[in-house]
TrEMBL record:
<dbReference type="GO" id="GO:0015018">
    <property type="term" value="F:galactosylgalactosylxylosylprotein 3-beta-glucuronosyltransferase activity"/>
</dbReference>
<keyword id="KW-0325">Glycoprotein</keyword>
<feature type="binding site">
    <location>
        <begin position="312"/>
        <end position="314"/>
    </location>
    <ligand>
        <name>UDP-alpha-D-glucuronate</name>
    </ligand>
</feature>
<dbReference type="InterPro" id="IPR029044">
    <property type="entry name" value="Nucleotide-diphossugar_trans"/>
</dbReference>
<dbReference type="GO" id="GO:0046872">
    <property type="term" value="F:metal ion binding"/>
</dbReference>
<feature type="binding site">
    <location>
        <position position="170"/>
    </location>
    <ligand>
        <name>UDP-alpha-D-glucuronate</name>
    </ligand>
</feature>
<dbReference type="InterPro" id="IPR005027">
    <property type="entry name" value="Glyco_trans_43"/>
</dbReference>
<protein>
    <recommendedName>
        <fullName>Galactosylgalactosylxylosylprotein 3-beta-glucuronosyltransferase</fullName>
        <ecNumber>2.4.1.135</ecNumber>
    </recommendedName>
</protein>
<feature type="active site" description="Proton donor/acceptor">
    <location>
        <position position="285"/>
    </location>
</feature>
<comment type="similarity">
    <text>Belongs to the glycosyltransferase 43 family.</text>
</comment>
<feature type="binding site">
    <location>
        <begin position="91"/>
        <end position="93"/>
    </location>
    <ligand>
        <name>UDP-alpha-D-glucuronate</name>
    </ligand>
</feature>
<keyword id="KW-0812">Transmembrane</keyword>
<feature type="site" description="Interaction with galactose moiety of substrate glycoprotein">
    <location>
        <position position="229"/>
    </location>
</feature>
<comment type="pathway">
    <text>Protein modification; protein glycosylation.</text>
</comment>
<keyword id="KW-0464">Manganese</keyword>
<keyword id="KW-0808">Transferase</keyword>
<keyword id="KW-1133">Transmembrane helix</keyword>
Amino acid sequence: MYHEMTYSWPRQNHDMKNKNKYLSIGGVPPSHQNVLPKFPKVDPEFQNDAVRQRISELETEVQYLKATASNCRIHKLTIDPDLPVIYAITPTYARPVQKAELTRLSHTFMLVPNLHWIIIEDADEKTPLVANLLRKTDIPHTHLVAPTPQEWKRKEKEPNWKKPRGVLQRNKALEWLRNELSYDVTTDQGVVYFADDDNSYSLEIFDEMRKIKKVGVWPVGLVGGLMVEKPVLNKTTHKVAAFNSGWRPERPFPIDMAGFAINLGLLLDHPEAQFSLTVEGGYQESEILRHLVTREDLEPLADYCTKVYVWHTRTEAPKLLGEMQLRKKGLRSDQDIEV
C-alpha cells in the first residue's frame, strides 16, 4: 500500500535495509530528502515554521491513510463489530485430505470479518490435528465432536448418496447455537451457513448472506451433474419460481447445502428445524428448510441468482498405493509428520 502514497517508501534494497534508522524522529530515506525543506541553521524561526508546515502535511497524510485503511478488507476484521455474525458450520472427518481441505477453508475464513467457525468432528474425541489448526488460525471458533454410529457410516465403496453424511454433526452445531445464544433481535444479528470443507468459496458470498431476513438462496457451481444449479426467478416479481435441478427436481427444495443460509433469529425461533438420518438421500436441505420457510419466502441473492460465488469442488481422493505397500512392511512415509 505505501508505495502508492505521495510520500512513499521506495522498495530499493538500500532504503529498506536502513529503514529503521530513517524512522527515528526527523529521519528520512535518502531518496526522500528532497521532501523536507533544508533547514538553515542560522534562522531558528524559519526552521520552526518549516517543521510546523511539515507536521501539517504529515497530519493530512495520516488522515488519508486512515481513510484508505478503512476500505481495506483485512482492516475491517477488527473495526466493524456491527456486521451480522456469520456462524459457519463445518462437519469434518479424518481422511488423507482433511488437513488440506481445512487449511484451504480456514484461509478463506481468515478474510471474512465477524465470522464464528463451528467445526464438528465425526469422532469420539477432538483430534490434535483439528485443534491445532483452529488455534493457529485465530478465527473465533467452537470445536465440537459428534460421532456417527457405525451402522450409519458409509462403507468404502458405497456411493456418496447411499447414507446421509454430516447429519449428527450439523445437528450438534445447531444444538450449540440454541443452548449458547440468547437472541435479541435488536442487538444480535446473525446468519447460519453450512460451509462444507470440500467446497470453494468466493468472499462475495459472505457479503451477500449478511443481507438475509429469513433464508437467502444463490447458485452453486459444479453440482448435481450441472455446471451450475440455481433458483429460477419470476421475471416480474424476482421471486423464486422454480429450480433448474436435474436430480429429483420434485424435492420441496431441490438445492445444494452450499446454496442457502438462514437468519439466526429465524433458526432459533424454530427448535424443530434440524436434519434427520431417516429422510431420503438428497432431502436434507428440504428437511430443515420445510420448518422455516416456503418457496415464496426465499430471498434470491448474488445479483438475482446470476452470479456464482460458491463451487462444489470435491478434492480427488489421492492414490496411496505406495503408502499401502509401506504399511504392509510396518513403515509409513508420514512418520512423525502431520499431513
